[in-house]
Each structure stands twice: as structure tokens, then as C-alpha cells.
DNA sequence: ACTAAGATAAACACAT
DNA sequence: AATGTGTTTATCTTAG
């Protein structure tokens, strides 16, 4: 599985070159991903086979020391193979990287040019900056833990082996041989397992390749612990002080491995692209490649982010520059657009990405801690989601999607202030994965209809969606509805809807043609969206009844619902979500601030059932089963259109719509229904 | 296998 | 003519 995701990573890199097509890449993910996975597995398998064979052949009389040596050799071989695969699979000519830099930013791109074939360890040392190394080493800590485990296991095995050897002196020779063989095989298996695990981790970008670790489990730990203070030396290409040359080499290898890791991990966790999309004040997205970024800074006369304390802060440079002008000159000469600079930028991207992932994880942890220590035991957000689900997994939508949401305008009052907003990078409901994946999120799922309402989901995560380039797990229809309902008068022009999308979701700041088309398509397609002519043009409103109609009405007590919810949500969240779902299913706009009109609403309630469907369990207006926030149900659809000229037909047929806030429904959804349905035939 | 719903793409018409 | 808006059709994917 890890292998697969890694391969998808690799595969998806090129697909990102064309922004529009990036989402469609998911379709063939299984196929080609499988292929790539097979390839990599084959590589690993080859190594393993060799190891097993070799071990079986010679282990009859291998001493532990020999065995260790052999294992080290094997590990190295495997590592080399891995690197070669990485290189051959990813590398692309370095000469075009300048042209590709833009696309490289758009999508987590393979750091093709960072393949070990093209960068020597020394280069890597130059490329990486101390913080970069630190970040990468941090990730290696995870591996260290694993290593520790393996090490213990192996030590145990060795112990057993020795014991057996001693005991075996009194045993027949064959028995000893067999047992030794068995143990050593076990040992080998263990090591292979470890190596494979290491490779998998590397492919996932979870850890950097530590040759010392890869080379031999028994010696792995000490070398893994590189003190951060040593990093500068590493950066300058110096080996650790007082170490023999081969250790310097190892450091070099280490760096190379790190680069390879960074390469492979590039796209694995689909986090927002290494270089984020910056949003200009006007809401237009701007994608800055690192290079452009730096060059843009060059234009600022007063300071430069890469210049500080009199020296160049370019990774691995530290050239002293007396003044900014000299620095600029230096920057233009030494760090011009070339393969090396590009590669360095890419590495930096990886570092940033890694840090983001780390941040996301830590934030999630913090959230869990805070949730545990105080407040909201019923947070609907499933923390239990795995941190690194396979990008294509559908768990995302299962958990978070909701097409039918009511909408408490959560945006206004983020209920989870304590836990939610900590980081914009926290992928709601699912750890750090599926960022930018787009694929799974777009699909509706069963829970889309049953589970957490879009409003609450948005309320809790709007900061996240606002900043992270993640496709929101809601359907276009639900988003459009949300946008419209958020407004005081429940109407929006198309352009305003666009603006809402871009304002609320970083994801919708790109590929505008695609999603705008989708928005228009949805507006036209769904009867729940009603176009109302206005003096200034046309506005779009929501016919709540129609909207509810399209939802499969089996909510209440439906075993499937419960099942869905249980599977999709953590138990703690179940209750709240269930309630929310129930509430929303019956009263779509309960919580909408604008909709709140304490006085008039009660009568409207019945309407909902009529339409929404018998199956829906009527929520008692008194809210015995519903949270307090669920105030009187309201149907929005009776939107009061501003200055509607002669469109009585369209929307106001039922008569004078009441005030904008609540009109609702008092009237006649039915009427409305009729109005809209009349022309058509679809009364169903 | 079938169907429904949604996403995406695209063609087209119409208005500004 | 270009652009925005709106409608419609087709195709694909996913889930039930």
C-alpha cells in the first residue's frame, strides 16, 4: 500500500503539468499505480530474493559477524537499487527545468532533477540548508523508532541464536545446523522486512534514507542521531569532525538519500503544492515559483529575504556580501537560473512540504489534546482517521462530505475555535492526506447525504479550506446553496457565487474555467436553483424544497445511515453528527443566521415533511432530540429578490414574500413548487 | 448489471 | 469581437 501510494506519487507528478487534467488523473490511478507499484515491488523483491537466496546458501556456516557483513552488503545493494529506480523513474533532462518550474509549482512535482544520478553527495550537501537537513532528519526519527524495534527483534534473535549454539553443542550437529539455519533465515527475513519497510517509508517520503540504517540494522542507530548542531558542517560539505573519510562518504550518501527521499515523497501526501498559491488582494491566485519569488524580491531595494547578516542565505552558500547591491550581484551570478539553483529550490520545496506535513500532524495532535482536555466531546470531526491514507481512498468523502447540509452558517461562529483554526493546513477530517487530491473529494458518497452538514463542516474548517489548496468535500450544488444561503437575502448573482467560491476555498482559486463551468452547469441543472431576474440582472436563489427533494430521504433510524455514520465517523462524533444530520434533513436552514426568525417559523415546519420525504423523521420543533441550536425550521426558498421587476412568476408567486430574512416558507413551498414545476413536468 | 448522482468538458445561444 | 451568462448534451466515475 505504501508502495502504491509512492508510485502514484511518482506517476502523478507529470500529470500535474496541465492543471485542468490533474483531477482526472485519479481515474487511472489504480492501473498505472499498480504498474508502478509492481515495478517497485519487483525491485524490492529482487533484493529480497537475492538476500534470501544468499542467506540460505551460505548461512550454514556464517558467523554472526559474517552475517552482519552480508546483511550490510545486501542492504546497500537494495538501497542502490532503490536509488536507481528512483532515478530512472523520475529523472528528466535537467535542461528544461526552467521552463517547467511553473508547472512544478502547480502540482507537487517530482523533483526529477534531484535524482541521485544527477546530484552527487557533495552537491546535495551544498544544496541543502541546515534547516532543510533538520527537517529531513526529523522525519528520520520516525524511522529510528522503527529501527529500534527491528533492532531489538534482531538482537533477540541473535541471542537466541547464540543460546542455541551453546545448547547445540550437546546436540547432534544436524539439529544445530537446522536451527541455526532457521534462525539465520529468520534474521534475514527480519532484515529484509526492515529494509523493505525502510524503502517504503522512503517512497512515502516519511523518512530520509540513512544509508547507515539501511546498511545494517545492528549499527543503524548511532549514526542516525545526527545532532542538529552538526548540520552546518554537513552543509558545508564537511564530514563530521574526526570521522574517517568513509564516514564522510556516508554523510554524503546520507544526503543523497535524503534527496532521493524528497524526490519520491514529493506527491505522496497530497499536500498543497510545495509553493503555495498566493492570493492577491483581488482574490486572484498567483502562483509563484521559487525562482520568480526570489527574483521578485530582487526588485525590492531595501532588503532581501535571502540576504541577512551580511551574507547570502541561499542554502549552502553563506557568501559574505557587504551590501545589498553586492548581494544582488552575487545572487544573479551565483544563483542564476540553472540546474543547480532549480534543484535547490526543489529541495527547499520538499523541506517546506515536509514541515507542513509535520505541522499538520502536530496540529492534529494538539486538537485531539485540546478536545480531550476540555470542550466539545462531540466534535464531529473524526480524529481517528489515519494520517496518511492512500490519496485515492474514498474515506475522505465518506467522512466529510455532505450534500445536504443545513447550514448554521457556521462561518459566523466557528464552534470549534479552540481546536479548529490552529492551522490552516489541517485537513479536516482526515489527517494530512488527500490534500490537493481532488479526486475522492469530488465524489458524492453515501454519507454525503447523511453525515455532517456542510455548514458545520465548513464552520469548523473554513479556515482550512480558505488557505489550503484542498478540494472541499462537498458537491457543487451544496456549495452553491451554501453560498446563497449565507447571504442575508438568499440570493446571489453568478459572479457573487464565483466570488464566494474563491473567497472560501483556496482550491477554487485555480482552474477557474473548470469549476465555474461546473457551477453554471449545476445552477442550470438543478431545479433547486432558481434564477430570478433582477433589475441589475439575474440572481440565483435556492428552492429549499427542491433541494431537499433531491436527497434520498431515508435518514431516520435507517440502519444504513447508522452504519454509514459509524463507519465514517468516530464514535464520539456520532451523536452530534447524527443529530445534525437529522436536524438538517428536516430543517435545512435551521441555523442559518439570516434565517433565524423566531417568530414566524413554527408553522413552516410541517412543510418540510411533506416534501422532504416521509421517511425523514420529523424533528420535533421543540427540539427534544435536536441540539439547542436547532431553532425553528425554515425554508429558505422564498427568497425575497431585491427589486424584482416583473418576476412574480419566478419566485414570488405565492404573494408578497415576507421580509428577506425569513419569509420563508411560510408560504408555500408548494406554490413555489408549482411555479417552478409547472413549466416542466417534473412534479415527482 | 443497472441506475442515480455528480463531475467534467464542450457546444451552443444569448446578452452586454 | 470578446466576454459573461445560461442551457444543454455527452461522457465518465462512483456508489447503492
From TrEMBL:
Residues 471-544 bind DNA. Residues 290-301 have a biased composition (Basic and acidic residues). It is found in: Nucleus. Its main location: nucleus. Residues 27-57 have a biased composition (Gly residues). Keywords: DNA-binding, Metal-binding, Nucleus, Repressor, Transcription, Transcription regulation, Zinc, Zinc-finger. One of its GO terms (cellular component) is nucleus. Residues 471-544 form the Fork-head domain. Coiled coil: none annotated. InterPro entries: FH_FOXP4 (IPR047414), Fork_head_dom (IPR001766), FOXP (IPR050998), FOXP-CC (IPR032354), TF_fork_head_CS_2 (IPR030456), WH-like_DNA-bd_sf (IPR036388), WH_DNA-bd_sf (IPR036390). Residues 1-17, 621-639 have a biased composition (Polar residues). Residues 672-684 have a biased composition (Acidic residues). SMART domains: FH (SM00339). One of its GO terms (molecular function) is zinc ion binding. Residues 1-62, 265-305, 407-451, 601-684 are annotated as: Disordered. Residues 654-663 have a biased composition (Pro residues). This is Forkhead box protein P4 isoform X2. The lineage of its organism: Eukaryota, Metazoa, Chordata, Craniata, Vertebrata.
Amino acid at each position: 500500500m505504501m508502495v502504491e501510494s509512492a508510485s502514484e506519487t511518482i506517476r502523478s507528478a507529470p500529470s500535474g503539468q496541465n492543471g485542468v487534467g490533474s483531477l482526472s488523473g485519479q481515474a487511472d490511478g489504480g492501473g498505472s499505480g499498480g504498474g508502478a507499484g509492481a515495478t517497485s515491488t519487483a525491485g524490492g523483491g529482487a533484493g529480497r530474493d537475492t538476500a534470501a537466496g544468499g542467506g540460505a546458501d551460505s548461512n550454514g556456516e556464517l558467523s554472526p559477524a559474517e552475517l552482519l557483513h552480508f546483511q550490510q552488503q545486501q542492504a546497500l545493494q537494495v538501497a542502490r537499487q532503490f536509488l536507481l529506480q528512483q532515478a530512472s523513474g523520475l529523472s528528466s533532462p535537467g535542461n528544461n527545468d526552467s521552463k517547467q518550474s511553473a508547472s512544478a509549482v502547480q502540482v507537487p512535482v517530482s523533483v526529477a532533477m534531484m535524482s541521485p544520478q544527477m546530484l552527487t553527495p557533495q552537491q546535495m550537501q551544498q544544496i541543502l540548508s541546515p534547516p532543510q537537513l533538520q527537517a529531513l532528519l526529523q522525519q528520520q526519527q520516525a524511522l529510528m523508532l522503527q529501527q529500534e524495534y527491528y533492532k531489538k527483534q534482531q538482537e533477540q534473535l541473535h541471542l537466541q541464536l547464540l543460546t542455541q549454539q551453546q545448547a547445540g553443542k550437546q546436540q547432534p550437529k544436524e539439529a544445530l545446523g537446522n536451527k541455526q539455519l532457521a534462525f539465520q533465515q529468520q534474521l534475514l527475513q527480519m532484515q529484509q522486512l526492515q529494509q523493505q519497510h525502510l524503502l517504503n517509508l522512503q517512497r512515502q517520503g516519511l523518512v530520509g534514507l540513512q544509508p547507515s540504517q539501511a546498511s545494517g540494522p545492528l549499527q543503524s542507530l548511532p549514526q542516525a542521531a545526527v545532532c542538529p548542531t552538526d548540520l552546518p558542517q554537513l552543509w558545508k560539505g564537511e564530514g563530521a569532525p574526526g570521522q574517517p573519510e568513509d564516514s564522510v562518504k556516508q554523510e554524503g550518501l546520507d544526503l543523497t538519500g535524503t534527496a532521493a527521499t524528497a524526490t519520491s515523497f514529493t506527491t505522496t501526501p497530497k499536500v498543497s503544492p510545495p509553493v503555495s498559491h498566493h492570493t492577491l488582494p483581488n482574490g486572484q491566485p498567483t502562483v509563484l515559483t521559487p525562482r520568480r519569488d526570489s527574483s521578485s524580491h530582487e526588485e525590492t531595494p531595501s532588503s532581501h529575504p535571502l540576504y541577512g547578516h551580511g551574507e547570502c542565505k541561499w542554502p549552502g552558500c553563506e557568501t559574505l556580501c557587504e551590501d545589498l547591491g553586492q548581494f544582488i550581484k552575487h545572487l544573479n551570478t551565483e544563483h542564476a537560473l540553472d540546474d543547480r539553483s532549480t534543484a535547490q529550490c526543489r529541495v527547499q520545496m520538499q523541506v517546506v512540504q515536509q514541515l507542513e506535513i509535520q505541522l499538520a500532524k502536530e496540529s492534529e495532535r494538539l486538537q485531539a489534546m485540546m478536545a480531550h482536555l476540555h470542550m466539545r466531546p462531540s466534535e464531529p470531526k473524526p480524529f481517528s482517521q489515519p494520517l496518511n491514507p492512500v490519496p485515492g481512498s474514498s474515506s475522505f468523502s465518506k467522512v466529510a462530505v455532505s450534500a445536504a447540509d443545513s447550514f448554521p452558517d457556521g462561518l459566523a461562529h466557528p464552534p470549534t475555535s479552540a481546536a479548529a483554526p490552529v492551522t490552516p493546513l489541517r485537513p479536516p477530517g482526515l489527517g494530512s492526506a488527500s490534500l490537493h487530491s481532488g479526486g475522492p473529494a469530488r465524489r458524492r458518497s453515501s454519507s454525503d447525504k447523511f453525515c455532517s452538514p456542510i455548514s458545520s463542516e465548513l464552520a469548523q474548517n473554513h479556515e482550512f479550506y480558505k488557505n489550503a489548496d484542498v478540494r472541499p468535500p462537498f458537491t457543487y450544488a451544496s456549495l452553491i446553496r451554501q453560498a446563497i444561503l449565507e447571504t442575508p437575502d438568499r440570493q446571489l448573482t453568478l459572479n457573487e457565487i464565483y466570488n464566494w467560491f474563491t473567497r472560501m476555498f483556496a482550491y477554487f482559486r485555480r482552474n477557474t474555467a473548470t469549476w465555474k463551468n461546473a457551477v453554471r452547469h449545476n445552477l442550470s441543472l438543478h431545479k433547486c436553483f432558481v434564477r430570478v431576474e433582477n433589475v441589475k440582472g439575474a440572481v440565483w436563489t435556492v428552492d429549499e424544497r427542491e433541494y431537499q427533494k433531491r436527497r434520498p430521504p431515508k435518514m431516520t433510524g435507517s440502519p444504513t445511515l447508522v452504519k454509514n455514520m459509524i463507519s465514517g465517523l468516530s464514535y464520539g462524533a456520532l451523536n452530534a453528527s447524527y443529530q445534525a444530520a437529522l436536524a438538517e434533513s428536516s430543517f435545512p436552514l435551521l441555523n442559518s443566521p439570516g434565517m433565524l426568525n423566531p417568530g414566524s417559523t413554527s408553522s413552516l415546519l410541517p412543510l418540510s415533511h411533506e416534501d422532504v420525504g416521509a421517511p425523514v423523521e420529523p424533528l420535533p420543533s421543540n427540539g427534544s432530540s435536536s441540539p439547542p441550536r436547532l431553532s425553528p425550521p425554515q425554508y429558505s426558498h422564498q427568497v425575497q429578490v431585491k427589486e424584482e421587476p416583473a418576476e412574480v412568476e419566478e419566485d414570488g408567486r405565492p404573494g408578497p414574500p415576507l421580509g428577506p430574512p425569513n419569509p420563508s416558507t411560510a408560504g408555500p413551498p408548494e406554490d413555489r413548487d408549482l411555479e417552478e414545476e409547472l413549466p416542466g413536468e417534473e412534479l415527482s
